[in-house]
Antibiotic biosynthesis monooxygenase family protein (Sulfitobacter porphyrae), 87 residues
Amino acid sequence: MTGQSIETLINTFTPKSGNADALLKVQLDEIAKLRGKATKTGWLGNEVYRAADGSRLVIVTWFQSKEAKEEWAASAEFAAHLARIAP
């Protein structure tokens, strides 16, 4: 990948009180569901963390390039995912 750098996204989610476990389950299910399509656009993977106090989730995602991240962000699959996790 000469001339390219890995693009890293860090997203923090603050669910309504008591909903962290539900959001965690949804996110993990979505990752599994979208993995195939996302990989084809240059998604390299991600890690999901929950704050010790259960108040937030942090998801770190890596893409092969800025262009790969933008392609995934513009996809219908990602738009549908955003709609599913909307407040």
Observations:
- Residues 20-40 form the longest helix (21 residues).
- The CA atoms of residues 73 and 79 lie 7 Å apart.
- The first strand starts at residue 7 and ends at 13.
